[in-house]
Write a structure and sequence with these properties.
single chain
């Protein structure tokens, strides 16, 4: 079955760790006949500030990113074939990607098999340095199996493989190493990453429908890559309808990962290894997310009775605990003995959706 016709307006805002991100987005999906569905998506976010690992060697910044997507879905019997194109542009990074997917229902609609392949081509620049230009190729493959197990239980098993090749690090980020000639006890040099990264993620999704129209989702996911990062996350979500108009939801997610094999918060000396990183997202850390949401189905419009307008507000609170990444902005601590970094962030998303 083709996706439902709809239009969405969204505003999102992120605040945490010295970084603010906000902006609008709009999405439109419309059928063209009985077999074709067209979609378009436009997204803008404005980023200001600087994360703690950039603050030590660079000043805060402001930049804007625009993302555009178009797609087409074609219904052929029990299969849906999809083709999508996306483009993202900012002043120092441009990304283009195309993906092809097919989903097929079988066994009377009780089983759905899906396959997707995508190719991305990115250009990396550096503000203030027009001579700097690097490229990144991204290949991703997804395989999914969704199964109706009972009249109240649906499960899905999804596998994703990503193959990246090219410039994979941040051109503004540095690593630090011990240097007793410096008053602070360390100096900085540019990060050096491998030029390939292969990842695989396996996710198990379970959705249970309760007798009083509510639903519980339990999701588990394991991730690992060629940089020796291992990660696991678990999420529980509960959706509860209060009436025909109001729906409430709550979720909790736990995420934990180990560090990359070339990550260190403080190296012993300059050029200690062939590859060196101090990106906190490659360190050992965990986070917990608590989320709340509410949706309200607005009254039907008299001039357009087929349309179903809806308002949705979602809020997430995230707490990050880094196990071996230290806060170098604390100036009265010895090198390597600074307090471990902690981060709290809030994410707000507001939607106006129109189903027709």
């Amino acid at each position: 079955m083709l996706p439902q016709d709809r239009a969405d307006l969204m505003y999102h805002a992120y605040q945490g760790g010295g970084v603010s991100i906000d902006g609008p987005a709009v999405m439109l999906r419309k059928k063209a006949g009985q077999s074709v569905s067209l979609s378009a998506y436009y997204y803008v976010d404005t980023v200001s500030g600087a994360s703690v690992d950039v603050q030590a060697t660079a000043s805060a910044y402001t930049e804007e990113r625009e993302e555009k997507r178009v797609g087409i879905d074609y219904l052929a019997g029990n299969s849906i074939v999809s083709l999508n194109y996306a483009q993202s542009d900012e002043n120092d990074y441009n990304a283009k990607s195309v993906s092809f997917a097919i989903a097929h229902d079988t066994f009377g609609g009780m089983t759905t098999l899906s396959l997707e392949a995508g190719l991305g081509d990115d250009e990396v620049g550096r503000n203030g340095d027009e001579s700097f230009s690097e490229s990144l190729k991204r290949y991703n493959y997804k395989l999914g199996w969704t199964q109706v197990l009972t009249d109240r239980w649906i499960a899905a098993l999804n596998v994703q493989v990503d193959l990246d090749e090219g410039f994979l690090n941040n051109p503004y980020r540095s690593v630090r190493y011990l240097n007793t000639n410096e008053s602070r006890g360390y100096s900085y040099q540019a990060e050096v990453y491998p030029n390939t990264r292969n990842t695989v993620a396996i996710a198990l999704v379970n959705k249970f429908y309760l007798p009083y129209r509510a639903a519980v989702s339990v999701n588990l996911r394991h991730y690992q890559d060629s940089w020796d990062i291992r990660a696991f996350d678990a999420e529980v979500e509960y959706v509860h309808p209060l009436s025909q108009q109001w729906v409430l939801e709550a979720k909790m997610r736990w995420y934990s990962q180990g560090q990359a094999n070339f990550y260190r918060d403080l190296f012993d000396y300059a050029n200690q290894q062939n590859f060196m990183a101090r990106d906190k997202e490659l360190s050992e850390f965990n986070n917990i997310t608590l989320g709340l949401g509410a949706s309200y189905m607005l009254p039907v419009w008299g001039a357009w009775p087929e349309a179903k307008p809806e308002l949705t507000l979602q809020w997430d609170h995230i707490r990050f605990n880094y196990k071996n990444f230290r806060n170098v902005t604390v100036v009265d601590a010895s090198a390597g003995l600074e307090p471990l970094y902690r981060l709290e962030a809030n994410v707000i998303r507001a939607f106006f959706s129109l189903y027709f």
